[in-house]
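Exercise (ungraded).
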Amino acid sequence: MAEGGSPVTMSDVARLAGVSTATVSRVVNGRYGVSASTIAQVRSAIERLGYESSLVAASLRRTRTNVLGLVTHRFQSYTAEVLKGVMDALTQSGFDLIIYANSDVYGTYSEGWEQRHLTRLSGTLTDGCIVVTPWGEVRASTPIVVIDPVRDSAVPSVTADNLAGATTAVEHLLGLGHRRIGFIAGRSSLAAAWSREEGYRKALAEAGVPVDPALIGRGDFNPESAVPLARALLERPDRPTAIFAASDGMALKVLEVAKEMGLDVPGDLSVVGFDNIPESALAEPRLTTVDQSMYRLGYEAAHMLKALVTGEWEGPRQILLPTRLLVRGSTAPVRAATRP
Amino acid sequence: MAEGGSPVTMSDVARLAGVSTATVSRVVNGRYGVSASTIAQVRSAIERLGYESSLVAASLRRTRTNVLGLVTHRFQSYTAEVLKGVMDALTQSGFDLIIYANSDVYGTYSEGWEQRHLTRLSGTLTDGCIVVTPWGEVRASTPIVVIDPVRDSAVPSVTADNLAGATTAVEHLLGLGHRRIGFIAGRSSLAAAWSREEGYRKALAEAGVPVDPALIGRGDFNPESAVPLARALLERPDRPTAIFAASDGMALKVLEVAKEMGLDVPGDLSVVGFDNIPESALAEPRLTTVDQSMYRLGYEAAHMLKALVTGEWEGPRQILLPTRLLVRGSTAPVRAATRP
DNA sequence: CTGAAAGCGCTTACAG
DNA sequence: CTGAAAGCGCTTACAG
């Protein structure tokens, strides 16, 4: 019988045990000052009815709920890795996790979804929230930690060192002899996108290679956005010998476009991504990328949030995590023939 | 300013707009019967204060919340794939998703966690829930769909055709000439584990190969549980030439143990898993496995739940999804030398 | 068209 | 040690 009647409430328990709901509440929450015999009666009533207190009702009344929230937009490989880190950090912590995902992907409310969901949860349900890659600034009445905040945000946050990571990626290409290096950028309002572009510019500048604006495509981190951009870059007579994409999702699309156009990777074109999502290791060839340890992003964010909620946080409120270049099969020395 | 004071409530809006909370509620929920000028006033107050209604308070009062729940224990690759399917099924559906994960992995309450969380959510917060791989029977006062139910459960559910999948896997090994085929079982209370073992027995029986109880190890789907079992099997003088593990997580551990013991896979030992988690394609050698399309499990479960909630479900309440054998690098013909 | 009042299921001072 | 009552932030008949 999966669908019973109405749920069992605290009043049902109180009635059966012959006590008030106040007393039931005390027993359920293990408060002192209830006689052993009353406890036994209430426990037996709870058992007989299969009662569980309503999370909603309890959190409406209480100040602390011992539930932490995580607000995310879409659910992608990126998010999955982050969640593993968050869960591991919360193991045995006494906090449960509620993840709120909105299904309204392309609906009217897409802008500002994070703020809306955050507010709806944080007033009551949760003691604090992690917000994953919001599109704008966010605020709440309880502590929050943002993974990948927007530029110049003062909110507590955890971010990968995107500048260093991108610099290393482009230096790797320069080291292979590439000089015409295309770049596919991410959503420019995000700090991550901005820093990755900065890294690209910085590495080129330090190598004395002028930035050619024609070699920069404006994507938005959505993999599909990279398709026309990659095509445009690769159809140029002076096409780049390498492309650095600001995310693996977009880099994988560059791989597809190159294949479509009959270009060999890494023979005719080197490709570097950013993120190290699981799919990048499965690509053919395997994608050279910058690992930003999304697991650790999630782990650190949860760790900080926990301490922020309990008022024990001592460390800096903005954490920068190191990245690591993973050289795999999609990059190779530039061919002598195509060298300018 | 990330941490403001107390959250903005409906009373704050009502006060500023000079109306009652009843009226604010009507505007927020788009109910008919409010004058245009009042709507404008309320809207402007909402905007000025940055008000969002509390999910908790609203769902406590309402019957429908337009939020679906998903209850899961740990957060693993398995879960991530399921979630992608769930989210895709819910896109533009008008339902949001709340995922509840408990952090109390090895705590006192581990048994029955699904039922407890389910009850706490389903009375009030959600219109219905998906429960992923519960360890026992579950029930709720609102519709539920179980992914991977326990044996003989009558609850609406979505399951992979574990029997057929396991049969095919073992037939594949038999076809390669293997006769001594070890099996590492999963948590026996789960229908999935039971069916996979049945498939193992069935394939052997049909090939006229007697089942050797000494070749069956009793794991519990936890990858670690496979380590001593694999070791015991492989240390036998008459060790099996192939091992079929009831999950990829366990199969990957078999790979590790074999490597430790200096056995070559697939030269000395063939290994087959079940699930097709992303990691299995990254293993060395890549793992031959049975794909149970966890994405589709999630997709179908969400699809059914949605229709169950709105009362529109017409199909069967127990869905069996096909599986597919993926032959990769971890299986090979049995060596002449080791053939009995 | 609008408001006062009751109530969703709990928890928490306050009395006793 | 226990209960009556208020109240968390909303929504919904019910009046007017």
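Further reading is listed at the end of the chapter. For now, observe: Chain B touches chain A through 66 residues (CB under 8 Å). The CA atoms of residues 221 and 319 of chain B lie 22 Å apart.
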